[in-house]
């Protein structure tokens, strides 16, 4: 399902714009083979003064992640709220001055282009920020044996069997994989 997630900055009224989004996942670009966003919903509250927009909201997502160690796909839920400033990317080049301004304000700044905010990208970014660097299906996941590929969470390693028994053991193993 496609949800219209593009917001024209000039459409944001004086007293703010409040938007709820359901079923965002279909509008978001795919992440990668280790992470997919299954469901996502969120809310945005936008307040504009001239070209600057203060934005706050939350996003919640159901993800499928792939374990770094055993390659099992496991579900994970994320929910986060955020608050930052959006400025037109044309101001990006003001560089140093802007950085200085930022550190005093301590509000994060993001940029928008072509007078348009892309809510789906913003939500996606917030979701991705919640994903840990190391993806583990469970704490202490034992992973796969590099020798025989056995999922060590579920079964014993077979490497020893292969060495101990006849050469046919290798074939038998291959069949069961
Ligand atoms: Zn695992
Ligand atoms: Zn093994």
Number of strands: 7
Number of helices: 4
Residues in helices, as a percent range: 10-25%
| Number of self-contained structural domains | 2
- Strand coverage percent: 25-35%
User: Order of strands across the widest beta sheet?
Assistant: 2-3-4-5-6
Structural class of the secondary elements?
A: alpha+beta
Would you list the SSEs in sequence order as H and E?
EEEEEHEEHHH
- Ligands, ions, cofactors: zinc ion
* Cα-based radius of gyration, to the nearest Å: 24 Å
| Silhouette | elongated
Poorly predicted regions? none
Distance between the termini: 37 Å
Task: Provide structural commentary.
With 177 residues, this protein is α+β, with helices and mostly antiparallel strands. It folds into 2 domains: 6-130, no CATH class; 142-177, no CATH class. The protein has 4 helices and 7 strands; from the N terminus they run E-E-E-E-E-H-E-E-H-H-H. Strand 5 (73-88), helix 1 (95-105) and strand 6 (109-112) form a beta-alpha-beta unit. The protein is elongated. The protein binds zinc ion (2 copies). One zinc ion is lined by residues 67, 69-70, 72, 136-137, 141.
Produce the secondary structure layout:
Layout lengths: L5 E3 L8 E5 L13 E15 L2 E15 L6 E16 L6 H11 L3 E4 L3 E3 H12 L28 H6 L3 H9 L1
Bound molecules: zinc ion (ZN) (2 copies).
């Amino acid at each position: 399902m496609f949800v219209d997630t593009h917001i024209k900055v000039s459409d944001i009224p004086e007293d703010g714009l409040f938007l709820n989004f359901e079923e965002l996942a279909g509008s978001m670009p795919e992440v990668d083979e280790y992470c997919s966003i299954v469901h996502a919903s969120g809310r945005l509250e936008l307040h504009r003064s001239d070209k600057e927009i203060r934005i706050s909201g939350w996003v919640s997502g159901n993800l499928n992640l792939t374990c770094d160690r055993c390659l099992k796909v496991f579900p994970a839920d994320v929910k986060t709220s955020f608050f930052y400033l959006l400025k037109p990317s044309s101001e990006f080049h003001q560089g140093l001055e802007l950085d200085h301004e930022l550190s005093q304000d301590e509000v994060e700044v993001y940029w928008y282009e072509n007078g348009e905010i892309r809510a789906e990208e913003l939500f996606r970014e917030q979701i991705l920020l919640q994903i840990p660097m190391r993806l583990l299906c469970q704490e202490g996941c034992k992973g796969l044996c590099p020798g025989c590929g056995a999922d060590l969470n579920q079964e014993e390693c077979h490497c020893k069997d292969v060495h101990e028994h006849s050469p046919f053991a290798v074939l038998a193993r291959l069949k069961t994989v």
